[in-house]
Fold these 4 entries.
Entry 1:
Amino acid sequence: MQVIPKGINFFKLSNMMKNNYFIFLLTFLMSTTIMAQGLLQPFKDDVEQQTDFEDDNLVGWTSLDLDGLNTQGPFQSFPGKGGPLGFIVYNPSQTTPENVLEGYTPHSGQKYYASISSWDGPVNDWLISDELAELYVQDRAKFIETLKLLTGVNEIDIIEDDC
């Protein structure tokens, strides 16, 4: 038998829970609205179809290495390690030797997108969805207004670069 202390209302949501619920609901409604307008279609990305350790020719994604620093990481070797890399398709089962260290296991499948650290300074790597980038180019004003609604901020600075 469970005893509930007197004076505690278990149905009252805390402010944090209300905010999280509001953000979830707003995100759901906005994404549903955007999809209904045909601006953003749902897609499923399958990193397993990407080439191991690729960083330049990713299908559906653009990988940018803005820091240009040499990569480091665990003692395993893989193509490109030691040179500058943006996000890569990391496959721990294909490193030499195989990377079985805790924390490097994919959540599902054998691969995932990863940005490899550097001992030379802070990493500035980006993985950009081509679909979202296309939406931004098609209708910037609507894209920015959607970001404002989803994030709850009044002003968003957009820095455009021809990367």
Entry 2:
Amino acid sequence: MLGNLMVNIVAEAVDAESSRTSQSTTRDELNLTSSTMPNLNSRKRKLGYFQFCLNFARELWEFRHALITLTSNKLAKRYQRSVLGFAWSLLNPLLTTLSLTIIFSLLFSRDPKSYGAFIVSGILAWSFIRDTLCAGCISIIDSANFHRKMRIPKSFFPSVTVATEFTNFVLSLLSMSALVVGLGIPMHATLLLLPVAMAITTVFVFGLTMILAIATIYFRDLSHIVNLVIGTLFYFTPIFYSLDQVPEKVKVFFLLNPFYYFVNLFKHLIYYGTIPSLFEWSIAAFIAFGTLIVSLFVLRSKENDIVFRL
């Protein structure tokens, strides 16, 4: 049922796009078979990088209605016939926070209430990054049938994954904020800058998701490796401890972890109530947009080859 609905949604978006360029194009012509798609892609001229970027943005904009609809459907499908519904998405970070708070508040002699807020300020951003990358790795592979049958942007389904997890992230932040207020922990005016931190983090996550999704097409074991690596990086990211507690001689290894710079923004704004320095904003933005630029280079170089590998 959901598969048919997705086909109809994407097909309608394709029809809307094609009607602006050719009045004679029909749905049957767009529902290409796997045998005709390679020929169509092989005739596609490779655009210059900047022209490709403009075309990339234009295609995503034209498919925005399909993206919004599929995102809504994925969220609805995730909690369909579930007793707790959206609460399930909160249980994992909540239980992780509770476990870490009980254990490390005793080890570090910290106030459990304050230490719990300290962990929450970083773990929600971490969960957004982790969940998006793990799901995004296989987003193009899982949508292979759609790419074989119709001309849709190769970035479309990774974008759906990012949009789905971002929506989940926003709802989790709102829910956790209500919980923090209920515990009597003060809210800071710096929360007004959260949308900026979220935007920078989303750019980074989108770029890295695109790179991993394309790489997984060529190396199918990559999705399992990503899960293992991200699970390990959790302990190398200052979430339940601060970077100041790391010995100087090994601190450089923690600073090489790109996830730290994004989690750090949220800790400043949510827990400490301070505005990150210009350097902290700059390095996070540099990593985010650098990753996006690289992802577009990768997509441009492999776009015409992807359908052959699916």
Entry 3:
Amino acid sequence: MQPESSLERRRATAAALAAWSCLLLLDAFPDRSAAAHHSATAPAGPKTTTSPGGPVNTSAEDLAALRALNKRFIHNFVTNDVASHDAILHPQFRSITPQGAHVDRVAYLKYWASGFNASVITDWDMRDERITLIADIALVSATNKWTKVTPEGAKTGMTCYTDTYVRHDGRWLCVLAHLTTVSPEHYPPDSSIVVRYVNGQLQPQT
């Protein structure tokens, strides 16, 4: 017979997966319930939410750790820090590009070594951060606004990402990074900026 703590852990994980599936369905079919969709995508805060399995753990400590990891994720990219990034990726990590390509962990880290060039990407920020925490699973979403130098001149756009984290041996590790191109009508405002880099340099927070 399994210890009570093990059974509780399995029940919490099962409930988390069920709730996670509901969130994904809401994203896929937003018109089914506008109120439910708003609840699933509202900006994160230090509060308790609920899932089909009961109260969800949204401890301030976990939320602070995930916000710090999100900032570290961005900083790792801007500084091409492969070692630091490797340390926060799950062994089974993969990425999905805006074009739908699936990239494995090895190829992803190889790209990471030279993915950011400050002379090409002159302005880069992370904004509209949203965190959904369900037991040992966390969805960390935000949007990057970028300005790139091209032969035709400066080009600006936004890309939304959702990073899925799992608690692994007591640590939060990213197991999936999914990128989506943002249409101009859905651009988050400048007031939601969390961090910004100009010419590769982190800017003071205002």
Entry 4:
Amino acid sequence: MYCRLALHSALVIRPDIVTLIVRVTLAKSRLFTTPQFAFPLFRCGILFNIRLEVWNAINVVYLIVYYVNIAIFRHVILQELMWKTRRNAYQHQQEKSMNPEIKKEWVDALRSGEYKQGSACLKNSHNEFCCLGVLCNLFAKHFNTEWKGNRLLGKVNYLPQQVVDRAGVNNGDPYTTEGVSLSLLNDKNMPFKEIADEIEQNL
């Protein structure tokens, strides 16, 4: 009777609390020390221990699923925000056309083979340039501006504002129609000639 009552209670409240109640009840009762009750008591204790372990396992699985879902949700939201930002930047960029003379000069320089292609910065210590660095170097030659290591006018990775204004682009890292920046195309090892095609068609 006691075992049935305890098992019924386990369905509606936490099994660890039920286990504690049963153990206290059994400790105070001499009735269950007789041989005829010893085996049912042992079996009841095993059932409660098993149920408690299952409960704990379910809680662990629930927490894992919960945090995995949060991570996936955050990733999806961040990706969506990133693509919206890229699309908005490209649409804003399209409102202003690049200076055609500077555009031609930049495209010709990229196709000339004069510049060695680098990545991660405008210009590195090996005298390698990214595609944005080529435009910066054209600006430096025109205005006799000196590079300071890998910096031009204080910038390392993106076009300085003076270069942006002269070229007629709207930001320091122009975007293509696919919402991908020129620096990203460069750092993914797209050759200068293909980047020149992108600039010619989309800027």
